Amino acid sequence: MAHAFVPKLQDLPQDLPAVPLTDNKHGDCPQIIAGAPVSFAEDDALKQSPPPAQIEFRGVTKMYGLVTAVRDLSLSVRRGEFLTILGPSGSGKTTALMMLAGFEAPSEGDILIAGKSVAAVPSYGRDQGIVFQSYALFPHLTVRQNLEFPLEMRGMKAAERATRVHSMLERVHLADFGGRMPSQLSGGQQQRVALARALIADSPVLLLDEPLGALDRNLREQMQSEIKSLHKEFGKTTICVTHDQEEALTLSDRIVVMRAGRIEQCDTPEALYDRPATRFVANFLGEANFLDDPVFVSGDERAGAPESLPMVRPERVRIASTAAASLDNADRRQIVTGSVEEMIYAGPLRKYRVRVGNTVLFVREHVASGQQVFTPGDEVRLDWLRADVRSVKA
């Protein structure tokens, strides 16, 4: 059946869901294009589009004298999304967050929140909750008073403030701590108070600046679970800045990896880890074995892709004695031999460093009963599926 016309978005009824206009197959950060044509497939229901962008960076550059901290940053964050900006020190991640928060002004470009430029809007007028690594609690106020403060600034009546504070303290498991001073709380409890204060005003955007950096490992893992639960419950558009790869992989819907003020890659945690685009991303998100030694790659393969670098993750590599039985699917695996240089016991994991030719490969395997343990000097066989090898930009 032929269609008489192709409607535009503005022609559709307000309660009719729009068809997705873009996808994220290639790891980019697409924006929804207003007014783009939408076609109807016969007998197919219209599909829901991704939520509209809540936050947009449009060609944002930030310079400090002759130093460029952020260079031509363009990024859209969808409503309700948890996006983490990840990168080493000096990558520009914190500067980007400070510009979004209103503590720094872009040298070039614009930042939009809910479709409106906030270039001329001070930080206190942007309706955002912010959690800093240092928590930034008011030391002279009790926990309850810390939570009441943003509500009082908004003119909320005392009775309503008390009800909301009590509810929030219960939600973060601090119902019995309202009368305590911040100095009387543990680091994890102070972090919960800071999160509660950022959430209680019901701002649509939540900004997290290295929120777990001051906590020990066990407490960080507990708080990661708590933050995921709070994000699911409140649905805030959340931007988190961190240098902790595990934190980013655990919390995020998408991750932006920054390097030298630019976006190196933007994608889901799974895609970034399994299909890194560059050597930098592969190295920054966990360990990586780069197979550029002639023992791994033939001359023809190197000549055919001079900018391509084969890579395999350590957990994809199997280790066995050179005397072990031959492999059933050897035609689908790459097999090399080498010498163990180091074995590290790490609780549930054993980590090996194995020298193969001029290259040291990393192997990571889960500890299991009856498993053979290799020591430095042992000759071993390593193998991995050829399908597990990824090609990254050198």
Describe this structure in words.
- The chain is globular.
- The two termini are about 50 Å apart.
- A hairpin with a 2-residue loop joins β15 (about 350-355) and β16.
- About 25% of the residues lie in helices and about 30% in strands.
- It folds into two domains: about 55-280, Rossmann fold; about 290-394, OB fold (Dihydrolipoamide Acetyltransferase, E2P).
- The longest helix is centred in the middle third of the chain and has 18 residues, at about 215-235.
- By secondary structure, it is α+β, with helices and mostly antiparallel strands.
- The protein contains nine helices and 18 strands.
- The model is unreliable at about 1-30 and about 30-45 (pLDDT under 50).
- The strands form four sheets. Strands 6-7-8-3-9-10 form a six-stranded mixed beta sheet, sandwiched between helices. A five-stranded antiparallel beta sheet has the order 13-17-14-15-16, with no helix packed on it. A four-stranded antiparallel beta sheet has the order 2-1-4-5, covered by helices on one side.
- It has helices at about 95-100, 145-155, 160-170, 185-200, 215-235, 245-250, 270-275, 280-285, 300-305, and strands at about 55-65, 65-80, 80-85, 110-115, 115, 130, 205-210, 235-240, 255-260, 260-265, 290, 310, 320, 335-345, 350-355, 360-365, 380-385, 390-394.
- α2 crosses α3 (about 160-170), α2 packs parallel to α4 (about 185-200) and α4 packs parallel to α5.
